[in-house]
Design a protein that fits this description.
Elements: H1 46-65, H2 69-76, H3 95-101, H4 109-129, H5 137-158, E1 161-163, E2 175-177, H6 179-196, H7 211-228, H8 235-250, E3 271-278, H9 280-284, E4 303-304, H10 306-309, E5 336-337, E6 370-373, E7 375-376, E8 394-395, E9 418-421, E10 432-438, H11 439-452, H12 458-467, H13 478-488, H14 495-501, H15 529-534
Antiparallel strand pairs: 1-2, 3-10, 4-9, 5-6, 6-9, 7-8
Helix pairs in contact: 1-4, 1-5, 2-4, 4-5, 5-6, 5-7, 6-7, 7-8, 7-11, 8-11, 11-12, 11-13
């Protein structure tokens, strides 16, 4: 398996940016190619501004839909996901293992790509916002929102945000924001976005920013402010998180029952903002080659640690459903389950479910389970599946070297690792509907803010658990909030951010390099070396 040729939405893109594409050097003589900002920039016409905004939104399709880059930095660096090599598949010179083991270096391709991609959003947004541009109020509000998003991603991942003032000379080095200054700038952009964007309401269809999306992102910024500023959580900031989430709730957003139905390409009461990018990566990168007839099977890669799987209620070794889709191993709804067969064609009234394109009498892809796949997998007609060597396709908890049997991230067999799937192929393998901002995240942000300001969040958390079919918790502290976020938001881009905020990103987990345990330098990624050279205002992060 190679990450370069196995994506079905926007394929993994390495931006071959010329030196200084985003940031200028400090030489007095400079070519226009040394910076995206032209030396004679004097604003954009209304048409140019609208086109630039379209390009910003279109770029997110690849930034979010990809299985590498931001998704990999957000999830594969944690206890939630890892990609072992199975034979020669997924070796890729160790680029995936380095993330899970915390042994990445400044030249890691995914790190460089995230830096380039999300910084580019910032400058394009600044061009649209520039007073000399003829941008409409609405276009300008969207640019504030996307610039804030780009700067937030850079701050969260690198701790420093280079900012090019569009009114400054192109030969000037971009200034660098960090800490409270960065938070203040991003918050100001989001307040402008809230003032100017259209309102969002539950059951809407929003693939662009809304007031609700801006409030969600501002709540995320304020919840993490104490991390970015290296201080303690402030009660005023936590109260701001609470009030922002209350405003989101007032737009009709609420928890929705039927957990995996949220991830169909349809309106619901939880989706605040989705990206119109195909969800094929989230399906096929975890499934075995034989898992489904759709798309030729899977790519047999992404898996989770058994310890993460064990956060959920249910049997440690089985996660089965009966023929009617009911759990039979004591598992809560969010852990999903493995069905004993597919769904007969014509037996489902769901208009969003696939048909039977291959004529086998079963809805395409309906033999694939939801959530966490462990144990024996089955064909649509209920026959046990085999892996390519003829042994049962039965996913295991452990990752072991196929020859020695020792715990290992290399030379695994085809069935090692519990697989993780949130978007199900029965609802369309390439539907362009990947959720990025979701109400239950905001709901749990409010619960956390209450806890951090000395309030009891038990009722809130247990209300969510009741909707998800999980047992109530006796009490809720920081560990319970973190665990609940892990159960609710798995593979939704937030695990790294959550672990850092709760002080657990550097904890020990299977296969992590011993030198990385307790090493808080890993809270941020290294700034690409070329950018340090080009902009002397940047300082390489500690430990790199």
């Amino acid at each position: 398996m190679k990450y370069l040729n196995k994506t079905y939405s926007k394929t993994f893109v390495v931006l071959l940016m010329s030196i200084g594409l985003i940031f200028s050097c400090s030489d007095l003589e400079i070519n226009e190619t040394d910076s995206i900002l032209a030396a004679n920039f004097d604003g954009l016409s209304p048409e140019q501004a609208s086109s630039s905004l379209d390009n910003m939104y279109n770029s997110l399709n690849g930034y979010i839909g990809d299985q590498a880059n931001l998704f990999a930095l957000s999830e594969v660096t944690t206890d939630a996901l890892l990609i072992p090599t199975r034979g020669s598949d997924w070796g890729d010179n160790g680029i995936w293992r380095q993330l899970h083991q915390h042994t990445w270096t400044p030249d890691h391709a995914f790190i460089t790509n995230v830096w380039n991609q999300w910084n580019e959003l910032q400058l394009t947004g600044s061009e649209i916002i520039d007073d000399r541009s003829g941008s409409s109020d609405n276009v300008r509000a969207h640019a504030h929102f996307l610039r804030a998003l780009g700067m937030y991603v850079i701050l969260d991942n690198f701790g420093q945000v280079p900012f090019r003032d569009t009114t400054a000379s192109p030969v000037d080095d971009p200034i660098v924001y960090s800490g409270a200054d960065a938070v203040s700038f991003i918050a100001s952009d989001l307040e402008a976005a809230i003032a100017g964007l259209e309102a969002g309401t539950a059951n809407g269809d929003y693939n662009r920013g809304t007031k609700t999306a801006a409030r969600y992102l501002l709540a995320k910024v304020m919840l993490n402010k104490h991390v970015f500023t290296n201080t303690s959580a402030d009660a005023a900031d936590m109260n701001r998180v609470i009030s922002l989430v209350d405003e989101i709730s007032s737009d009709g957003y609420q928890l929705q029952s039927g957990y995996f139905n949220i991830f169909k390409a349809s309106a619901d009461t939880e989706t605040i903002w989705y990206i119109p990018t195909a969800v094929g990566n989230r399906i096929f990168n975890t499934l075995h080659y034989s898992s489904t007839e759709i798309g030729g099977g899977g790519w047999n890669g992404f898996s989770t640690l058994a310890d993460y799987y064990d956060l959920f209620e249910g049997d440690a070794n089985n996660n089965r459903l009966d023929a009617d889709g009911n759990p039979i191993d004591g598992q809560e709804e969010r852990r999903g389950g493995v069905p004993p067969a597919g769904i007969s064609n014509g037996s489902s009234s769901d208009p969003l479910i696939n048909g039977d394109d291959n004529g086998d009498g079963y809805i395409d892809g309906s033999n694939v389970g939801n959530g966490f796949l462990i144990g024996q997998q089955y064909t649509p007609n209920g026959t046990p599946l085999n892996e390519r060597g003829g042994s049962p396709l039965s996913f295991t908890r452990d990752f072991t070297n196929a020859a020695s049997g020792a715990a290992s991230l290399t030379d695994n067999n085809e069935v090692s690792g519990i697989r993780v799937i949130k978007y199900n192929p029965r609802f369309g393998a390439f539907k362009e509907h990947e959720i990025f901002f979701r109400y239950s995240d905001a709901y749990l942000m409010k619960a956390e803010a209450m806890l951090r300001s000395g309030q009891d969040a038990s009722a809130m958390v247990n209300s969510l658990r009741a909707v998800r079919g999980a047992s109530p918790l006796a009490s809720v502290g920081e560990q319970e909030i973190l665990d609940e976020r892990g159960r609710e938001l798995f593979v939704e881009f937030w695990r790294r951010n959550d672990l850092i905020r709760f002080g657990q990103f550097t904890k020990d987990w299977d296969f992590k390099e011993s030198s990385a345990i307790g090493n808080t330098d890993r809270h941020v990624f290294p700034i690409p070396a070329s950018q340090i050279i080009l902009n002397p205002n940047l300082v390489q992060n500690s430990g790199y």
